[in-house]
Amino acid sequence: MSLEIINENEEKVSVKIKGVPLQYANALRRICLNGVPIYAVESVDMLENSSVLADEGVAHRVGLIPLKTDLESSKADNENDKIMLTLDSGISDETRTILSGDLKSQDSNVVPTSDDIPIVTLAPGQSIKFEAHARLGKGTEHAKWNSANIVTLTESDKDDERILTVESTGALNPKHIILSSVEQLASKLSEFKTTISEIK
């Protein structure tokens, strides 16, 4: 088995995979899409909301905002720890659009991947205030924890060679997604081998 990076940038990476059966390569593709843990908002405690959007609508939008995930630098001690993000719009005499950049995170390493994602529009005199709680999760639980937007596996001219392309949501570096997925696949295969040997 061999992996060779043929194209890479901050958002997307393409890797040439050689000597790997199609079943394993496809398993790797699935893990890249929804098997690598990232942070996403799980719950929102609404403290104040005078906008036209219901509390549930605001919570849904905030939950789908992708968050940068840096497990090495994060303040979370384990996977069950939660990171709190807060937003307090205050009151203004002007119409405003509240954006993801208005969220304040208690962990500078867990922040929205973009500051320009709209959350809600406030008319003059309206305000919104809430606390959002983010935790690690996998896309197998909910799509908001998908580490990648698109993962494709394409055939090449050679029978034992395929191209795996991963486009990240921005939460993780795309190369990190592939490396983490390879480790997970190897671990699962090792566990399966151990289970089979115990049956004998």
Characterise the protein shown here.
By secondary structure, the protein is an alpha+beta fold. The protein folds into 2 domains: 88 residues, Gyrase A, domain 2; 101 residues, RNA Polymerase Alpha Subunit, Chain A, domain 2 (Beta Complex), CATH 2.170.120.12. Helix content is 24%, strand content 34%. The chain is built from 3 helices and 10 strands, in the order E-E-H-E-H-E-E-E-E-E-E-E-H. It has a 4-stranded antiparallel sheet. The two termini are 28 Å apart. The model has no long low-confidence stretch (mean pLDDT 92). It catalyses: RNA(n) + a ribonucleoside 5'-triphosphate = RNA(n+1) + diphosphate. Keywords: Cytoplasm, DNA-directed RNA polymerase, Nucleotidyltransferase, Transcription, Transferase. Its EC number is 2.7.7.6. Belongs to the archaeal Rpo3/eukaryotic RPB3 RNA polymerase subunit family. It is found in: Cytoplasm.
Strands, helices and their partners?
Elements: E1 2-8, E2 12-18, H1 22-34, E3 38-49, H2 55-63, E4 83-88, E5 96-99, E6 104-105, E7 118-122, E8 128-137, E9 148-155, E10 161-168, H3 174-199
Antiparallel strand pairs: 1-2, 2-10, 3-8, 4-6, 4-8, 5-7, 9-10
| Unreliable sequence segments | none
Number of domains: 2
Helix content: 10-25%
* The level-1 CATH class of the largest domain: Mainly Beta
Largest sheet: 4 strands, antiparallel
CATH fold type of the largest domain: RNA Polymerase Alpha Subunit, Chain A, domain 2
User: Which H/E pattern describes the elements?
Assistant: EEHEHEEEEEEEH
Principal-axes shape call = elongated
Q: How would you sum up this structure in a few lines?
A:
The chain is built from three helices and ten strands, in the order ββαβαβββββββα. By secondary structure, it is an alpha+beta fold. It is elongated.
